[in-house]
Amino acid sequence: MRPIGTLLAVLCVGASLHAQAAPDKPAIVVGNVIEDTDSAVVGATVELVGMARARTDSAGIFRFRDVPVGSHILRAARLGYAPSIQIVTLKPNDTLVVTIILQRSAYALAPVEIKADSEITPRTDPTGFLWRKKGGMGVYFDALDIEKRHAPDVQHLMQGISGVYVVNGGIRIARESQSFRSPCYGAQVMLDGVPMASGFDLNALPISAIRGIEVYKSVATIPAELRTSKNTCGVVAIWTR
Q1: Are strands 81-82 and 27-35 parallel, antiparallel or unpaired?
Q2: Does the first or last residue of the chain, that is N or C, have fewer Cβ atoms within 10 Å of its Cβ?
Q3: Higher pLDDT, 30 or 126
Q4: For residue 134, which phi and psi values (nearest 5 degrees)?
């Protein structure tokens, strides 16, 4: 018969191994959506892009359960407000509390919701993507184009666009000029009409969540509605489903 001390040691080791083998639990994201006046925004659409969607309740609260660890794009939108987009990073067993502030805007784009039995046309597309695709001066990928490419991420998706490079998730555009063709850093990335901060990783966006991409490689080709103060090197506008 083993001594009691030995048995206790064996049990402790077994318990330790069991604890180490236990899988990490998925994370929880909970938060509220408010105006800059601290008033709750009721009925806002909040989405973990490519994963799940929720609406805020009467107190402006939303919640996502069983969220995989890693970095995700969190988007909030409501008609009459400029949409808000941010990156959230989740750890195992984490509960992340987020406060999202929406700014009122008379010119904000309506959130895009595509139903399985609906068809968006250039006339009904609130983003203007399909209309610009018909007669714009950029490079355009619609959902069918993206599906045909079978790309694992945005970096590989853009490999076929001349003069556009994605390096570690960041955009470089070769300037189209007769005088020089050096890479231009700092091209503006726009996600659902929202200008993203410098350093935004395009590969954080799931391919399955994208319904359209438009690329403008020079300032002269950028349509007025996509112009910002930071697009001197061009614009990559991405629209999600």
Answers
A1: unpaired
A2: N
A3: 30
A4: -70, -30
Tokens linked to 203? 């590969």
> Distance between CA 237 and CA 129 in Å, rounded?
9
pLDDT digits (tens, 9 = 90+) for 88-114: 989 988 999 999 999 887 554 545 554
In eight-state DSSP terms, residue 200 is -
CA distance 7 to 56: 54
Pairing of strands 52-55, 61-67: unpaired
CA distance 57 to 49: 20
Architecture of domain 27-104: Sandwich (2.60)
Q: 69 CB contacts (<8 Å, ≥6 apart)?
A: 24, 26, 27, 90, 91, 92, 94
Pairing of strands 235-240, 210-216: antiparallel
- Output the six-digit token pair for 148: 């045909």
The CATH homologous superfamily to which domain 129-240 belongs is TonB-dependent receptor, plug domain (2.170.130.10)
Annotated domain spans of the chain: 27-104, 129-240
Provide the edge-to-edge strand list for the sheet that holds 194-195.
139-142, 210-216, 235-240, 188-191, 194-195
